[in-house]
Amino acid sequence: FVLGMFTIKNNILKGWALVSLLFMFMIAWGNNLAWFNYFLVDYVPYFNKFRDTKMILAIGHIIIVLIGFLGLREFFRMGPDSEKMRSLMMGAGVSGGIVLLGLLMGFGMTLEGPYDSQLNAFPDLLDALRADRASLLQADALRSLVLILASAGILWAYLKFDFNKYIALALVGLLAVADLWNVDRRYVNSDDFKNKSSVKEEVTARPVDKQIMADSDPHFRVLDLTSNLFNSAMPSYFHKSVGGYHAAKLLIYQELIERYLSNPGKNPQVLNMLNTRYIINQNANGQPAASRNPDALGDAWFVKEYQIVDNANAEMDAIGPGFNPKDKAIIQKRFADKLGGLQIQSSEQATVKLKNYIPDHLTYEYNAPSDQLLVFSEVYYPEEKGWHVYIDGKRQEGLMKANYVLRAMKVPAGQHKLEMKFEPASYYTGGIIAKISSILLMALFGYGFYLTFFKDRALDKHIEEMEALAAAGVKTQSERPKTKPSPRKNESATKRRKNKRK
After folding, report:
1. N or C terminus: fewer CB in 10 A for the chain?
2. Where are the alpha helices (DSSP H) in 121-164?
3. CA distances from 273 to 92, 222, 325 (A)
4. Whole-model pTM?
5. What tens digit of pLDDT does each residue of 105-126 get?
6. How, if at all, do strands 221-224 and 276-282 pair?
7. Contact (CB, 8 A) for 370 and 296
8. Residue 299 near residue 218, CB atoms below 8 Å
9. pLDDT of 336-367, one tens digit each?
């Protein structure tokens, strides 16, 4: 990249790269440049979706690699070797100086962290921690310095001994791949892969888990109060868990957690509509034990009535203590048109059963003597974003949100097969764009390969032949005196002129 700053002549391109990198570094500083980043969070759309502002550096990597490639290309295209050597020395000097500064910082700075003060009571631990930081910085700086000197040495040897430029490019590329491989192994290496037997030894089912898994119907949820309810993924290893951990929960479920599930004992109605069949708690001996919840409502059910409320706040309030989700559904006013003025005729003969469960494809069978409102114990996600309902294979509009977090659907009378499929248009459109982009990328790669290894070589060969002829004193076609061709030779003269232009 630094070499490119000295070899690329396009100042606009270099300026764009430097300004873009500076902008990305400012974003990556996050709270250390609060005035800048809080402005972006408050006023730039979608900027607050960044989980970590340092993620922006991934785009910075692309810019650095792009300028690095272009700089290397311009290095081989430059004029005299003296100009190339000067650019090479300046590029190596600046980049080597930067990492050398990092190496010296590893020796001379204390490298204190923002939370070191919490370890003042453990001075030996604090000293060891700072020594580790210094060691990491020194090791990476030294590695970078060796790579810079090695790649600069290859290009210097290319200029000094005039060997094939493709050999020089291959050697520099080999250095880059070796460096990439070495760093990637810090993140993914053999320790990250384990055979099935070792995993089973680490994660074993408790007696209470085995008791629940003995239930022949797998379609229910479990609330494990013996775990850290919303920060542990262990219960999900064996059960469909009410709790569990994810860094980006759906907002409606996170709000349900904060309002009701953070104190599940006082809000059994919410556990019932989430089809929580088993609750794991500690028994008198302090051991985990499962108790069956007889009021769990199942995978889906028909309600006797519904209540229309104005907004989400009213909907959240309505599902509080005293609410009976078995008989009533709470629907926001914005979904009222999907009900079509439904007048529910409650019937004990109406039945519904979940026949097949795949997270993005659920299949139900139901039988109802009249049109009904069917509530599903599944977290709602907007219909326009991909969840589609099919009744007897035909797409039906009308999926709505009920009880703040669940799905509901007005269904016609009769015996029917109902399917829910997650089919987000953005996914399929993205797949098509990815395929087209891959084809274009491969076509560009092929064209670049042709230009590099065939067209440029033919041109180089032609130039070498012309230079050899000139050195031998032979006049070329362009240097011969122009004569008027005879009529009989007009065709060949025309061909010669075309060849000359080519």
Report:
1. C
2. 123-161
3. 66, 13, 6
4. 0.65
5. 888 888 888 888 888 899 999 9
6. parallel
7. no
8. no
9. 999 999 999 988 889 999 999 999 999 999 99
